[in-house]
Design brief:
The N and C termini lie far apart (about 45 Å). By secondary structure, the chain is of the alpha+beta class. The strands form four sheets. Strands 3, 4, 6, 7, 12, 13 and 14 form a seven-stranded antiparallel beta sheet that branches. It has a five-stranded antiparallel beta sheet with strand order 2-16-15-8-9. A hairpin with a 3-residue loop joins strand 3 and strand 4 (about 75-80). The chain has helices spanning about 5-15, 95-110, 115-135, 230-235, 240-245, 250-265, 275-285, and strands at about 20-25, 35-45, 65-70, 75-80, 115, 140-150, 155-160, 165-170, 180-185, 190, 195, 195-200, 205, 215, 225-230, 295-305.
Length: about 300
């Protein structure tokens, strides 16, 4: 392990003290106690569409996810391992799975405290590096990530997004319609090159978690719907179609599975469909693109409820 990596490891594992978290021993009369009901579905690009379902975090190809709840909060998170590492003999799914396990531990190991999503993401990455440095695993590779945290005591939602996974918040407008009130921006250095955090087999650490876009939403309401997904959804299904699918009145579980199926259907199309990723590529001067993008797909749906 290089001296630089060791220094970053030590820094990353000690910088998060109780002072960086938020402790709530009581709530004011204005506080709203909220929670979420959720469902999830995923599909590996190497699996047939019939296998879509609420698999465990190790059944989503190079994607992974975690859902963790404590008395203080709920954390929903997805990660997308960068597949290009396979050409170098590295299985990127090990990175994304370890990152999500560490995100869950960051929440679980802070009883009595609310851990915001940005802090959880940073702790997750340096926890991954710590697992490797201890010789327990070899989670080499890179990953994007998006974490959503709900403070159950204050009703505030916060979102940390690194790369091109993402989250959208939808709100019923009283006319059986859903309106978008927020969507995370895509972070990338160039077309199809998202921000990502990395641990290489030679011990080089590229920590881009400080670059994650972090937003807070104090105005979430019961009935608001959270769509959290890897780019397998966002690259293939246009936002208006996602909303239309969610307005059909199905259960959360059926809706999540419907989104995954639709993303796979479009991802398998080579012609006759201009997907969001193809449209973005053309805007950036990439000619000859058509169809969708076959990829792993992970979707978590959550609706805000009053507790």
């Amino acid at each position: 392990m290089s001296k630089i990596a060791l220094h970053r490891l030590r820094h990353g594992l000690t910088v998060f003290s109780a002072a960086t978290l938020f402790h709530y021993s009581s709530t004011s009369s204005e506080s709203r106690k909220l929670n979420v009901k959720f469902a999830h579905a995923c599909l590996s690009k190497n699996s047939t569409i019939e296998r879509v379902g609420a698999h465990d975090p190790n059944g989503c190809g190079e994607d992974s996810w975690v859902i963790k709840e404590t008395p203080q909060q709920v954390c929903l998170a997805v990660a997308d391992g960068v597949g290009g590492w396979r050409s170098k003999g590295v299985d990127p799914s090990q990175f994304s799975r370890c990152l999500m396990r560490q995100a869950g531990l960051a929440i679980e190991q802070s009883p009595g405290f609310y851990v915001d999503s940005f802090t959880a993401l940073r702790k997750a990455f340096w926890g991954l590096v710590g697992v490797w440095s201890a010789g327990k695993e070899k989670p080499f590779g890179s990953s994007t990530a998006c974490l959503v945290g709900l403070n159950k005591q204050t009703g505030e939602l916060d979102i940390a997004n690194l790369g091109d996974s993402g989250c959208m918040i939808l709100r019923p407008n009283g006319e059986s319609r859903l309106e978008r009130i927020f969507r995370t921006p895509v972070q990338q250095t160039r077309f199809n090159a998202p921000y990502q955090t990395t641990l290489t087999p030679d011990g080089h650490v590229n920590d881009q978690t400080p670059l994650a876009d972090h937003t807070r939403h104090a105005d979430v309401q019961p009935g608001d719907l959270i769509v959290l997904a890897t780019d397998g959804l966002w690259d293939n299904v246009w936002e208006h179609e996602i909303i239309n699918l969610l307005q059909q009145g199905h259960s959360l579980e059926k809706s999540a599975m419907a989104l995954v199926r639709r993303a796979r259907e479009y991802g398998e199309m080579e012609t006759g469909y201009d997907s969001p990723v193809v449209h973005e590529g053309r805007l950036q001067g990439k000619r000859g693109l058509s169809g969708g993008k076959l990829d792993d797909i992970t979707v978590i749906l959550a609706v805000i409820v009053e507790e």
